[in-house]
From TrEMBL, chain A:
This is Carbohydrate ABC transporter permease. Residues 72-264 form the ABC transmembrane type-1 domain. It is found in: Cell membrane. InterPro entries: BP-dep_ABC_trans_perm, MetI-like, MetI-like_sf. The chain crosses the membrane at residues 12-32, 74-96, 108-128, 140-163, 184-209, 243-264. It is a multi-pass membrane protein. Keywords: Cell membrane, Membrane, Transmembrane, Transmembrane helix, Transport. Pfam families: BPD_transp_1.
Automatic annotation (TrEMBL), chain B:
It is found in: Cell membrane. Keywords: Cell membrane, Membrane, Transmembrane, Transmembrane helix, Transport. It comes from Nocardioides potassii. Residues 75-291 form the ABC transmembrane type-1 domain. PANTHER family: BLL4140 PROTEIN, DIACETYLCHITOBIOSE UPTAKE SYSTEM PERMEASE PROTEIN DASB. It is a multi-pass membrane protein. It comes from the Bacteria. The chain crosses the membrane at residues 12-34, 78-99, 111-133, 164-188, 213-232, 270-292. Gene3D superfamilies: MetI-like. This is Sugar ABC transporter permease. The keyword Transmembrane applies. Its main location: membrane. Belongs to the binding-protein-dependent transport system permease family.
């Protein structure tokens, strides 16, 4: 990057850069902007570009609806349960894959990669039938089951990289100093893995919090909707759409995700294109 | 690693450690897969919803599907949509990554901030915003186009299939470019600077430097990223489904995913929809094979 391109190239690159920034960021800005506007400003033929004089009425309306509060409750339960179960299962599996060489290890890794690519649309019909037969449709447990399976492959794959990043020699040193193997693992390796576990957990949160398709299939009853389902039913052609309210709802759902995403982004991107984090 | 590897060979411990994950995957994905194969050979429609046991019909569902012009239309539509979206995303993402190297520091930071915001947006939230932007009556897009002197006042974007897919493509591309741009840009920062200088001193022009130095360095990343785009864009569901609810005609805009949903869960034709799902799975597996091979090669190299 030290070499200088011709001035004309640099100037046009900068212009393109500013345009790309505007195109990429504008919808996010517009969501937040509109969430502060009242009905008259929303329905003004000339858009209100900056929310001067805006207020929090839309947010108040959203919080006052039972459907939102209920969806928030369902979303929090499913997301929380999914993260806990997926992290626990993925963690032990990641230790096995990166600390042991055993027969079937390679098939396990290949299976993870293949499963990660399976489209949910390819299986949701029979998942629906299975959950229906087990009477788990419209239950937090049922949705959690399919969510766990959904995030497990990527979670194991990523954690595997983090575990491999902690040198085994550290554990050995602790064992020489008198720790048992289990003690060495919990006292030396686990603390070093904490950032990796947090990053992976946040990724699982984003996945489960945003997921739409499986929620649509499993949660058919209105009182069991998750937040994305609640939000999608807002834009019904048959009703006059309350864009201010929708944007307030979207902002509420998006802000935690955007914050979390910015925190873990750097750690997670590499996971898809390389053998995750190399030690 | 090698030390622990030797240790691990004789113990059942690693198997106990992968057991919970394996069981969860087998229960939530493996069992449904087997069930789906069976289902795709059965006549399981509305009559079965009312208690009649499913009838074994062999390949009838598949035969019906192969003869169904609508399925072919949906498949062709899905493939075209997938290829167009993947191609546009790749061209914009790679072009942006190349340009990012020549931007001033501040501008590059600006671009990265914008891309991160677009990338971080939850899909349903971004769908509602884009629907609001493209809204017929009060949308910003119609307003701006009208200000430019075009006749777009009250233009209904979702009504006609072609314009419906234009909106869907804008949304999918907007969401997908950040991943491509960031990944390719990261690969570009690995470029051997000396090699570029040497090529320049030897009189290689910008184009030939790109072809002989830049491209070979980023080719593996381009392949994986491109493949991922194709796989992901083949299964676009949420965007199309939500836009259909927002006013598009489902029949004229169904892709494979929404078709399976509407056939099975919407219409109760579980046998038929299971067969379409098997078809979609097969398509994905074919596309995934080279991805898995590349990832495993990288794994072996590390």
């Amino acid at each position: 990057m030290s070499r200088q391109a011709p001035a004309a190239v640099r100037a046009s690159a900068n212009v393109v850069g500013v345009v790309v920034f505007l195109l990429a960021a504008f919808p996010v800005y517009w969501m937040v902007n509109s969430s502060f506007l009242d009905r008259n400003e929303i329905r003004n033929p000339v858009p209100t570009w900056v929310p001067f004089g805006g207020d929090l009425d839309n947010f108040r309306t959203v919080f006052a609806t039972d459907q939102f509060v209920n969806a928030l409750r369902v979303s929090l339960m499913v997301t929380g349960l999914t993260i806990v179960v997926a992290l626990a299962f993925a963690f032990v599996a990641a230790v096995a894959v990166s600390r042991f060489r055993f027969r079937g290890r390679m098939s396990f890794v290949v299976a993870l990669l293949v499963i990660q690519m399976i489209p949910v649309e390819g299986l949701f019909i029979s998942q629906y039938k299975m959950l229906e037969a087990a009477e788990l449709l419209n239950t937090v447990l049922g949705l959690t089951l399919v969510y766990v399976a959904n995030v497990l492959p990527f979670t194991i794959w990523t954690l595997r990289g983090f575990v491999a990043g902690v040198p085994y020699e550290l554990e050995e040193a602790a064992m020489i100093d008198g720790c048992s193997r289990v003690q060495a693992f919990f006292r030396v390796t686990l603390p070093l893995l904490a950032p990796g576990l947090v990053a992976t957990g946040v990724f699982g949160f984003i996945q489960a919090w945003n997921e739409f398709t499986l929620a649509l299939v499993v949660m058919t009853r209105e009182d069991q909707r998750t937040l994305p389902l609640w939000l999608s039913t807002f834009t019904d052609v048959n009703r006059g759409t309350d864009w201010g309210g929708i944007m307030a709802g979207s902002t509420l759902i998006a802000v935690p995700v955007i914050i979390f995403f910015l925190v873990v982004q750097g750690r997670m991107v590499s996971g898809l294109t390389t053998g995750a984090v190399k030690g | 690693m090698s030390e622990s590897a030797r240790r691990g060979r004789s113990t059942p411990l690693p198997y106990a450690l992968v057991l919970p994950a394996t069981l969860a995957l087998a229960l939530a994905l493996g069992y449904p897969l087997v069930r789906q194969v069976v289902l795709s050979f059965q006549d399981s429609g509305l009559a079965q919803q009312f208690g009649r046991p499913p009838e074994w019909v062999g390949l009838q569902n598949y035969r019906d599907l192969l003869g169904d012009a609508y399925l072919w239309r949906v498949t062709a539509r899905s493939i075209v949509f997938c290829l167009v979206n993947a191609a546009v995303t790749m061209v914009l993402g790679v072009g942006l990554a190349l340009l990012m190297r020549h931007m001033a520091r501040g501008v590059r930071l600006l671009v990265q901030t914008g891309l991160l915001l677009a990338w971080a947006m939850p899909v349903v939230a971004s769908l509602t915003v884009w629907q609001w932007l493209f809204d017929t009556q009060y949308g910003v897009v119609n307003y701006l186009l009208t200000q430019l002197g075009l006749d777009y006042a009250g233009h209904p974007w979702l009504l006609r299939p072609l314009s419906f897919f234009f909106v869907a493509t804008v949304i999918v591309v907007w969401m997908s470019v950040p991943f491509v741009a960031f990944t390719v840009y990261a690969a570009l920062t690995q470029l051997p600077e000396e090699l570029l200088e040497a090529a320049e001193m030897d009189g290689a022009g910008a184009r030939s430097r790109f072809r002989h130095v830049v491209l070979p360095t980023i080719r593996p990343v381009l392949l994986v990223v491109g493949l991922l785009q194709v796989i992901w864009d083949l299964r676009v569901f949420t965007q199309v489904f939500v836009l259909q609810q927002g006013g598009g005609s489902a029949r004229d805009t169904n892709l494979l995913g929404t078709y399976i949903y509407r056939l099975g869960i919407g219409g109760g034709e579980f046998g038929m929809s299971a067969a379409v799902a098997m078809f979609m799975l097969a398509l994905t597996v074919v596309l995934t094979a080279p991805y898995v091979r590349t990832m495993l090669k990288q794994e072996a190299d590390t």
